[in-house]
Design a protein that fits this description.
By secondary structure, this protein is α/β, with parallel strands linked by helices. Helix content is 41%, strand content 22%. The protein is built from 16 helices and 17 strands. Strand 16 (353-355) and strand 17 form a beta hairpin. The longest helix is centred in the N-terminal third of the chain and has 18 residues, at 34-51. It starts with a strand and ends with a helix. It binds iron/sulfur cluster (SF4).
Length: 378
Amino acid sequence: MSEIVRSIYAHVPFCHTICGYCDFYSEVLDRNAVTPLVDALIAELDAYAVATSIAADTIFVGGGTPTTLPAVELRRLLTRLAQCANSEASLEFTSEANPATVTPEIADALVAGGVNRVSIGAQSFDKSELRVLERIHHPPQVAQTVATCRAAGVDAISLDLIFGVPGQSMNAWLSNLQAALALEPDHLSCYGLTYERGTPLFDQLATGVVTRVESELEAEMFEATIDTLAAHGFDQYEISNFAKPGRECRHNLRYWRNEPYLGIGPSAAGFVDGVRYKNVPDTAAYVRASRLGQSARISEERLDAAARSRETMMLELRLREGVARGRFADRFGADPAALFRDAINRHLSLGLLEVDAGAVRLTRAGQLVADSVIADFI
Ligand code: SF4
């Protein structure tokens, strides 16, 4: 490897229970599997550290629920990750956390391990919505988790919310937003509920146990989110992500700008030296590979410049700043407005894209159908 790695993602697959809508790779916590997993994560990182130069300015520990790990193992993992930081840059070190898993001891372990940003899976402040989502926490535990993290010294708090939960009205969604704003987060991620094939929620939809929120209402919820959060000083810097000035998630910006990052852990993906790879989505197999000194990768793909430019177009269109024409031309030697003229013109005429001297970006109408616009650049 020759590239300097500036971002690391570590995947901790354990959760206390598996939520009905979840299609991330996650497993019910097995306490006997914790130490072998942390050993394997550290061994994978050690192997990369020998082979390449790592000077991270963003680290993100996700899952799963990293805060299901016992404090001592969580701190062991975080401490090793923090050793990969670039000492000359400011480090954004994020851990995901779920309400009901963050005790003062866990929060202290996060901060002692170097974490300065916690992304909390609140999802909803409504008891019945949490039940539909099969989340294990109670609404007041979100505020408790925020308070516990702040008391431990966490600098930045992000909250994840889901709209379009079966049975949710516009008023109920606006109440969720207000409850989140009352906690004064630095950052909010607001996603519409998706029904992923293979999840229990998908089956419940197929068998009529739950009913999907009407698409018009879901679009109105999305637009109300943008307006409500803007009125409270949050900039929509990505379709689903909102931040107070200077509080954008630098790690996720690196994904959306299609820049390199290292991924470690079961199911983790990475993009280093032009190669996209994915690790085995199986904790036991991941640990076994580590013990045998083998790679945990199950796929690798070297992307040529054309593929990288297409990917960059698709990812950067998610950003409100859009695809910066100058930066794109510096990377790929061509103006995106010329390279993708046909696809751009189709959506320009429909009012879904706009192009100016600086960027190609989605309009507000384009954001409502972002997936189908972006798919046109494949
Ligand atoms: S807590 Fe998150 S990762 Fe774990 S099962 Fe629920 S949605 Fe999936």
